[in-house]
Write a structure and sequence with these properties.
Elements (H helix, E strand, L loop, with lengths): L3 H23 L4 H22 L7 H4 L3 H6 L3 H15 L8 H14 L12 H13 L13 H21 L3
Protein name: HEPN AbiU2-like domain-containing protein
Length: 174
């Protein structure tokens, strides 16, 4: 089997993460940098799934953007290593108790943040403003947010995936 496409996938992931960092430096409030991070995350996660368990390559079309499904396809030892590395980087987080919900939010964000205005298609400007004001008045509860980013957890898993994917890359034939 040719592994060239896996080398390209790894390179593309790192380029997306570099692009996210560059964009964040000039537009820190942009959701676009977050979307680029999600793409980089997805590519590193899929790369790790394919290289740690080659049978996952046969399932790649079914993975789509379902981060839980991709993570669950990793060998248990790889899952544990990733969670340990993430925890070492960020400390206690939702990854230990709410990983599936975090993955579900990231999957929803991948779709929803590309066209976030569609969430408010039927709202008037006043209704949109009132919705935000009401959410803020309630203390901006995370569970009532339209989009939940889980930035800390993303930082941790990206750190872990960079380490794991780099190790997997070193073991691939050229």
């Amino acid at each position: 089997m040719s592994t060239h496409w896996l080398h390209l996938m790894y390179r593309e992931a790192l380029e997306r993460l570099d692009d996210a960092e560059a964009l964040r430096s000039i537009r820190p409030d942009s959701n676009s940098s977050y979307l680029l991070e999600l793409i980089g995350f997805e590519l590193l996660l899929k790369f790790t799934a394919y290289t740690s368990e080659p049978r996952n390559i046969e399932c790649k079309r079914s993975f789509r953007h379902n981060y839980k499904k991709i993570f669950d396809a990793l060998p248990q030892s790889t899952q544990s290593r990733l969670l340990t590395l993430a925890g070492d980087r960020i400390g206690p987080s939702g990854l230990s108790s709410g990983r599936d919900a975090i993955f579900a939010d990231w999957t929803a964000n991948f779709d929803g943040l590309r066209y976030p205005f569609e969430k408010y298609e039927g709202d008037t400007a006043e209704e949109y403003q009132a919705r935000g004001d009401e959410w803020l008045k309630k203390g901006a509860p995370l569970d009532a947010a339209t989009f939940r980013f889980h930035h800390l957890e993303l930082v941790g898993l990206l750190h872990a995936l960079r380490i794991e994917a780099h190790e997997q890359l070193r073991q691939l034939p050229e």
